[in-house]
Amino acid sequence: MKQSEIINLSTAELQAKLGELKKSYADLRIAHAISPIQNPLQIRSMRRAVARLATELSKRELQ
């Protein structure tokens, strides 16, 4: 997700998307541990997307 897309989401949507991405990230890591996945860079991009969403949520809580 792009940062501009993340900013336009509501807080509830951010929380839902964050939970969804965290589950996908965990599944991807488990799949990679069992047998190497086709594109291991997916793990990095997924982790960064989770971090972007978490950062936006914490930023909104501070405001």
From TrEMBL:
<keyword id="KW-0689">Ribosomal protein</keyword>
<dbReference type="Pfam" id="PF00831">
    <property type="entry name" value="Ribosomal_L29"/>
</dbReference>
<protein>
    <recommendedName>
        <fullName>Large ribosomal subunit protein uL29</fullName>
    </recommendedName>
</protein>
<dbReference type="InterPro" id="IPR036049">
    <property type="entry name" value="Ribosomal_uL29_sf"/>
</dbReference>
<keyword id="KW-0687">Ribonucleoprotein</keyword>
<dbReference type="GO" id="GO:0003735">
    <property type="term" value="F:structural constituent of ribosome"/>
</dbReference>
<dbReference type="GO" id="GO:1990904">
    <property type="term" value="C:ribonucleoprotein complex"/>
</dbReference>
<comment type="similarity">
    <text>Belongs to the universal ribosomal protein uL29 family.</text>
</comment>
<dbReference type="InterPro" id="IPR001854">
    <property type="entry name" value="Ribosomal_uL29"/>
</dbReference>
<dbReference type="GO" id="GO:0006412">
    <property type="term" value="P:translation"/>
</dbReference>
<dbReference type="GO" id="GO:0005840">
    <property type="term" value="C:ribosome"/>
</dbReference>
